[in-house]
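In response to the reviewer comment on reproducibility (Comment 2.3), we provide here a single inverse folding case reported in full, input and output, so that an independent group could reproduce the run without further information from us. The structure tokens appear first.
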């Protein structure tokens, strides 16, 4: 008999959900995936996680993990063949992810939706966000990845947000003086596991066949 799968509620374009899916792929796990739409969240998801954000991981034993950083960490604690959870770099990784989530994301949202935040211009929002990009550029000056020569949880935790920033206006992003960051992002966009993370799934509905992520067919 096969053991029941862990179940991930996810949304393809959400950067938090992307980092959770990256964590699952780097951990070489597979989960049941329920793609959702933010406008029509399934009641089954809200019943286990009333705060209503994705990603949400429901473990086979019923435990619910409803923060993306915790989902990445949990996945890599199960299996971490590439050593993303490196003890030596983990305080730095935590600090960088916190800066991403608490500070960079704030400016990213305003840069992306500047028309909804008229207090500052879009260029000013972009420049506030660039403070974090400058920090990443400095880190990448001597290293291939953010915290050294190996991928760490910081790379997979931050990459989806830098991607979103770049995609607000690619021409502008690639004209900024961050060559190392641009190369790092490009490498991620071409990474086979990132391509797998972006697989499209139809929104889940009650009664659908179980969808397995990653889709290995
Ligand atoms: N702190 C949460 C944030 C997750 C989050 O905000 N996800 C967004 C989508 S990218 C969401 O679900 N928003 C709810 C909504 O828009 O209704 C985490 O890290 O998992």
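Designed residues, in position order:
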């Amino acid at each position: 008999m096969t053991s029941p799968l862990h179940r991930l509620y996810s949304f393809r374009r959400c950067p938090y959900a992307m980092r959770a899916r990256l964590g699952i792929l780097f951990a070489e796990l597979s989960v049941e995936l329920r793609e959702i739409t933010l406008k029509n969240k399934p009641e089954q998801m809200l019943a286990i996680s009333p705060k209503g954000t994705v990603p949400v991981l429901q473990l086979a034993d019923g435990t619910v993990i409803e923060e993306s950083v915790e989902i990445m960490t949990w996945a890599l604690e199960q299996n971490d063949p590439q050593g993303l959870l490196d003890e030596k770099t983990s305080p730095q990784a935590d600090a960088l992810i916190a800066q991403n989530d608490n500070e960079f994301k704030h400016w990213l949202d305003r840069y992306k939706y500047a028309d909804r935040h008229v207090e500052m211009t879009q260029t000013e929002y972009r420049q506030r966000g660039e403070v974090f990009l400058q920090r990443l550029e400095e880190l990448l000056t001597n290293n291939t990845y953010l915290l050294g020569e190996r991928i760490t949880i910081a790379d997979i935790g931050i990459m989806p947000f830098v991607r979103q920033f770049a995609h607000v206006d690619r021409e502008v992003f690639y004209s900024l003086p961050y060559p190392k960051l641009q190369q790092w992002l490009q490498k991620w966009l071409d990474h086979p596991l990132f391509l797998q993370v972006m697989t499209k799934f139809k929104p889940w509905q009650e009664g659908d066949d179980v969808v397995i992520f990653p889709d290995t067919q």
